[in-house]
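Sample entry (197 residues):
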Amino acid sequence: MRMIRTRTLPGTRRAIALAAAFGVFAAGCTDMYDDARIKPLQESTFYADGQSSRPLVEGTVPRGSARTDEHFTTGKINGKFADAFPVEITAGLLDRGEDRFNVFCSPCHGRLGDGTGMIVRRGFPRPNSFHSDSVRSKPAGYYFDVITNGFGRMYSYAPSIPVEDRWAVVAYLRALQLSRRVEAGALTSAELEKLSR
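Predicted structure, serialized as tokens:
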């Protein structure tokens, strides 16, 4: 007896392979869809405490957010606002602070820190002047904390201004405050001449 060979078309083989691959894929997706998953903050019977969200492991630090120096990262020492700076005050730091102050702070506080920024001229509420006695008497850490966390109508600038630049802004702010209180006799002749221009 003679065998008759049948030939499968090249397209048919490809169609069979694709159908098999799709079947395996679809079965995997169904398993994932039906998997017992828990939504965040959903009640759970799996854990003894009934919570689906698990507490962080002790000592966990968010990536890029290690706060090993309380003074540098919060402006506080032992939980109280520090008046000392955790960075060296240099001309470069003050220049950087002036630049960041003009970009982020002057729209509300004005370039002189007197609360007459451009948005105030447009009708927004005026912030306190940095030169008033009550504001000037605040420690440096207080200003750092306000930049970091916001205060009143002012929102947090932590996402926009890195820690180092926040200290630069505070240093420049102190320089602005001191500039209003310098006696003319304390200035050199070159500084007096520069002021007269």
